[in-house]
Amino acid sequence: MRPVSMGAALGAALVMVSCAGPALRQDARRKAALEDDMFLSAAIAHSQSELELAQLAQQKAHTPGLVAYARRIAAERASLSDSLTVAAKANGTEGDANHTPNIDSFKSLEDEAFERAYVAAQIEDQQNNLDFFDFEARNSANSTLKTFAASALPQLHQDLADAQNIVKDLPFEKETDASQGVVVNPRRP
After folding, report:
1. Is 187 helix (H, G, I), strand (E, B) or coil?
2. What pLDDT is stored for residue 33 in this prediction?
3. Looking at residue 179, what is its pLDDT?
4. I want to staple 163 with a disulfide (CB 3.0 to 4.6 A). Which of 11, 26, 120, 122 is the partner?
5. Is 32 exposed, middle or buried (0-12, 13-18, 19+ CB in 10 A)?
6. What's the CA gap between 99 and 129, in Å, rounded?
7. Which has the closest alpha carbon to 122: 62, 32, 41, 182?
8. Measured in whole angstroms, how far is the alpha carbon of residue 65 from the centre of its chain?
9. 49, 47, 122: which is closest to 86 by C-alpha?
10. What is the dihedral of CA 34, 40, 46, 52, to 10 degrees?
11. pLDDT of residue 98
12. Which pLDDT does position 184 carry in this prediction?
């Protein structure tokens, strides 16, 4: 076997890398496009679910502050869903029209049980929404989606703060356990 010089080995490696470069860039573009499609699809589904749950809360909640919060979230999510749908179409995807809302688990709840469950779900949903949009704003290869996600962040921060603050206005009769998916009454020692 003939010895290979360091220069020849390095030259062969550079040729292989330069030939593989376009394929690697194309794979990276495909991966980025897939991630953007996944963001849009999940964001549309999540916004639709939040919209439907907020509409149910407007019907079932009795605490005025919670009803007002649900009305605002419904209006925001309707607008966000519309914007996401436009962005999805511009990106060449349709998003997830067949979302799976979590509304069914709330339909049988009434009064205080509904309000506690709704607020607990909102705190979790708003944190997840914030994390999801923040990730897209920092990591999307699509500058339009990156800007869109970043522009939604201030409102999503406010929605989370409002969900956390609304707990103080709820007239809970008994202490509940946040670890079981419901909100702890902040007024009880």
Report:
1. coil
2. 76
3. 39
4. 122
5. middle
6. 15
7. 182
8. 24
9. 47
10. -140
11. 60
12. 41
Report in angstroms the alpha-carbon separations of 70 from 96, 102, 106, 152: 23, 16, 14, 18
In angstroms, the CA 33 to CA 18 distance is: 23
Q: What ranges do the domains of the chain cover?
A: 33-180
Name the strand (E) or helix (H) holding 178: none
The reported pLDDT for the residue numbered 8 is 54
* Type of residue numbered 27: D
State both tokens at 18.
């330069």
Average pLDDT for consecutive 10-residue bins of the chain (189 residues)?
50 52 64 82 87 94 93 94 89 67 82 90 90 92 92 94 85 52 39
Tokens of 73: 């979230």
Class of domain 33-180: mainly alpha
Torsion, CA 67, CA 160, CA 143, CA 92, rounded to 10: -50
Max Cα–Cα distance, the chain, nearest Å = 87
